[in-house]
UniProtKB/TrEMBL annotation:
Gene transcribed to yield this protein: LOC104593631
EC number of this enzyme: 6.1.1.2
KW Aminoacyl-tRNA synthetase (keyword) present: yes
Lineage, uppermost ranks: Eukaryota, Viridiplantae, Streptophyta, Embryophyta, Tracheophyta
GO MF annotation list: ATP binding; tryptophan-tRNA ligase activity
Shown residues in whole-protein numbering: 70 to 350 of 350
Name by which UniProt lists this protein: tryptophan--tRNA ligase
Keywords of the record: Aminoacyl-tRNA synthetase, ATP-binding, Ligase, Nucleotide-binding, Protein biosynthesis
Length: 281
């Protein structure tokens, strides 16, 4: 099986962008791939923020390369980080791949033996960015992405928002004064975003939603959207409450996962040490 690797930062609460851009896809992908999903606690750098911003992409590349992933399911905002990750992998493979230990003059030496590419150290991973949902936009500004760090909580739907909060956020979210509703009109970014969210949450096709909503007014659509969100998030919220009240279970899952992941990480680290000429640990 091919392997997928992805993570979410632990700070703030998970929102609809994290869910539709990444987490929802992990659920369907985990059956066809060997999957490693993690909470990226080292990334949530409270101290040394200045340095953390500089080192962040490298740390992310390490997460991915350490586990020899084939694919990385993420939202569009991670595309640049994925490009750097691929570049680093290719560079290390070119510099150090294909080296073997050999006896030279009685000493063990690292020498190039044949094709460097044949001795790749890291898999060069590819991002898996969904066609729809890759960039969920803010509820208060259709031109900026929904994010944990935006100061206004009105700009996002958190997965754990209670019903009345969801209804209220949708009621107050930004719209426009065009008549009817449509996808892909550059003058109507909010409209496109809200229809896309509705499409993903209800599991309908874009064409179905476009047809159903073309003559709708905002009031009618907002009620439909709020109800769909509340219905979709309800089972997730129920399950969250069950799991969060069982810390022993959660610790067990983390420990089991960490143990499996460490085996893969150790193998990669050893081959890196060997290829670069460091003493093996
Ligand atoms: P983070 O925690 O910011 O976001 C987690 C995932 O959610 C996606 N996402 C979005 N997708 C669509 N629309 C949005 N508005 C939106 N906001 C966030 C992100 O693309 C991401 O997939 N650097 C990563 C965490 C990370 C990681 C890794 C991911 C660290 N190491 C290794 C993959 C592999 C981040 O900050 O995600």
């Amino acid at each position: 099986k091919k392997r997928i690797v992805s993570g979410v930062q632990p700070t703030g609460s998970i929102h609809l962008g994290n869910y539709l851009g990444a987490i929802k896809n992990w659920i369907s992908l985990q059956n066809s791939y060997e999957a490693l999903f993690f909470i990226v606690d080292l990334h949530a750098g409270d101290e040394n923020v200045g340095v953390a911003l500089l080192t962040y992409p490298v740390l992310m590349a390490s997460d991915i390369l350490l586990y020899q992933s084939d694919f990385v399911p993420v939202g569009e905002d991670q595309k640049q980080h994925m490009e750097l990750t691929r570049e680093l992998a290719e560079r290390i493979n070119n510099l150090y791949g294909g080296r073997k230990w050999k006896k030279m003059g009685g000493f063990d030496c690292l020498c190039y033996s044949g094709d460097r590419r044949g001795g790749a150290i890291f898999k060069v991973p590819e991002p898996l960015i969904p066609q729809a949902g890759a960039r969920v936009m803010s509820l208060t500004d259709g031109l900026s992405k929904m994010s944990k760090s935006a100061p206004s909580d009105q700009s996002r739907i958190n997965l754990l928002d209670p019903k009345d909060v969801i209804a209220n956020k949708i009621k107050r979210c930004k719209t426009d004064s065009f008549s009817g509703l449509e996808f892909d009109n550059p003058d109507r970014p909010e409209c496109n975003n809200l229809l896309s969210i509705f499409q993903l949450i209800t599991g309908r096709t874009k064409e179905e939603v476009a047809r159903e909503c073309q003559d709708m007014n905002w009031g009618t659509f907002k009620t439909l959207l709020a109800d769909a969100l509340i219905d979709h998030l309800h089972p997730i919220q129920v399950r969250y409450e069950e799991i969060i009240s069982d810390p022993a279970y959660l610790d067990g899952v983390l420990l089991e996962g960490a143990t499996k992941a460490t085996c893969i990480a150790d193998a990669t680290l050893n081959s890196v040490y060997q290829a670069m000429g460091f003493v093996q640990r």
